[in-house]
Amino acid sequence: MKSKYKIIILCHLLIYSCTTKSPKIDGLDYNGWILDKYGCTGKRLEMVSLIDSNKEKFLRFNQNQIIDILGRPENQTLFTRSQTIFYYYIQHNFACEDQEVKQEDEQIKLEIRFDALNRSKSLYVHNYVNPLKK
């Protein structure tokens, strides 16, 4: 009977040790971010300044860890030298019915670049002025 409990405890430890720990940022609702696909509900717009101001906390995660934290990106690009770029849309995307739609290069979106070793190396928010940096 004792070995059965040891196996159960070991399984729980393995499950919890394999999950990605999201950076602790006050006010950032990761589940709300994930559920706001293409930024259609405006939740991402409310939180993007927190990610932008704390971008160093998101560096060095691999692609799977970023997906665990922020959900699947709406777009991704394979760049030169085996680099990958994830895009999370925040506002003005064609997928949203109740928003003004803008061209791709004018949309607000979070870009996360990964190096050839699959580590996030930079975060940039396109077409957004962070009010927390003023």
Structure description:
It is a single chain. With 134 residues, the protein is an alpha+beta fold. It has one domain: Beta-lactamase Inhibitory Protein, Chain:B, domain 1 (2-Layer Sandwich), CATH 3.30.1450.10. Helices cover 31% and strands 21% of the residues. The chain contains four helices and four strands. It has helices at 2-18, 30-35, 43-53, 63-70; strands spanning 75-79, 83-91, 108-114, 120-126. Strand 1 (75-79) and strand 2 (83-91) form a beta hairpin. The mean pLDDT is 89.
* Helix and strand element order: HHHHEEEE
CATH hierarchy, class: Alpha Beta
> SS-based structural class?
alpha+beta
CATH level-3 fold name = Beta-lactamase Inhibitory Protein, Chain:B, domain 1
What gross morphology would you assign? Answer: globular
Biggest sheet descriptor: 4 strands, antiparallel
The poorly predicted ranges are: none
Our estimate of the beta-strand percent is 15-25%
**Quantity of strands, as a count:** 4
